[in-house]
Amino acid sequence: MQKRRILAAVFVVSAAATLMVAGPAAASVTNSGSFAATCNPSSYGYATDNVGYYHVTNLGTVSIKQKSSSPGSTSTVTAMSQNGKEFSAQNIGDNGVASWANVLTGTYHVEAKSSYDHNCNGVLPGDGNYTFGYEITY
């Protein structure tokens, strides 16, 4: 009888430990989007598609990957919170990833612009825009 109680207690303790490990961790979510960003960052600011992504995990990580740019461009990327605060800007090219740690819970919008002034318009006047394709993991 004593042996059964000890085995039952060990089972209950190990089941509780397993539940604690699996408990509060939240899975990350990945979404994609694209929008027109400026090729003339010295004259124009960041562009966004105004899609809000709700980051659930307090002090978690958010990353933005530049999936594509057309015409090809290195981008300066950031994200802005619903409170108007921006992450520190990072420069990435196609398949590059910018990542931020210790991000507070909240809604964020992806923002991008070309990292340098260049002509995306060919023979047309002005520098134009490029298509910034991204993937956000939050």
Largest sheet: 4 strands, antiparallel
What CATH first level would be assigned? Mainly Beta
- What's the SSE pattern? HEEEEEEEE
Structural category: alpha+beta
**In order across it, which strands form the biggest sheet?**
1-8-3-6
Query: How much helix is in the residues?
Result: 10-25%
Rg value: 22 Å
CATH topology: Jelly Rolls
Tally of individual helices: 1
Low-confidence runs of at least 5 consecutive residues: 3-24
CATH architecture: Sandwich
Break the fold down into its secondary structure elements and pairings.
Layout: H1 2-22, E1 30-38, E2 52-55, E3 60-70, E4 75-81, E5 90-92, E6 97-103, E7 106-114, E8 129-137
Antiparallel strand pairs: 1-8, 2-7, 3-6, 3-8, 4-5, 4-7
Word description of this protein:
The protein has a single domain, classed as Jelly Rolls, CATH 2.60.120. The chain is 15% helix and 43% strand. It has 1 helix and 8 strands, in the order H-E-E-E-E-E-E-E-E. With 138 residues, it is an alpha+beta fold. Strand 4 and strand 5 form a beta hairpin. The termini are far apart. Strands 1-8-3-6 form a 4-stranded antiparallel β-sheet, with no helix packed on it.
